[in-house]
Amino acid sequence: MARLHDQADAWTPPADFVHIHWDHETFFGDVMVYGSTPAAECWALLPSEVRDRFHAVGARMSELMPRVGGAGLIHADLHLGNTLFRGRDVKLIDVDDCGTGPRLYELAVALWELRDTPDHAAFRDALLAGNRTHPEVDATHLDDFIALRQVAFDLWFTGTAQVNPDFATKLDGVHQWSLSMLDLVEGR
After folding, report:
1. Is the pTM of this model over 0.90?
2. Which residues pair with 186 in a beta bridge?
3. What share of the chain is helix, strand, coil (3-state, %, to 5)?
4. How far is CA 112 from CA 118, 143, 176, in A?
5. What pLDDT digit, counting tens, does each position of 68-91 carry?
6. Kindly report the CA angle at 157 between 156 and 160, in degrees rounded to 5?
């Protein structure tokens, strides 16, 4: 991840380079389309308890996102499922979410699915140690960004469930997982 960010920082994008800007509006506004469902419709489809918790995350992040340092070009979906290992070689796939945003979000995505596992602390420590080339990324608010990732994931899953029956059958479980994850990262 650190090597990817170093390369991105040294790269000068062409004038016509189009990418997502991962800011508060992208996460909580009506910028995204999930499946074929606009974000505003996904928000309306959420159970009220989930929607209320997500709005609370949004309120917290509206103040926090502008204050965190270390913004730059990020993969934005860099979790273990999008990482291929062969010996000591690592290849990254699924770059369609690539854009400009806080590097702390990139770290949160990498740790998000592991946050509720017993190995989380070891993964977190290893990831932060490996990211030492970017000292401007302060991990103090890492759990807030994991909450942000949970919101983004649930909205994506909700929209995709509108066009994919396999997702639809798992949607209630995803909403429950989101509530559990928010409980965990918010210390409830």
Report:
1. yes
2. none
3. 55, 10, 30
4. 13, 9, 16
5. 978 899 999 999 899 999 999 989
6. 85
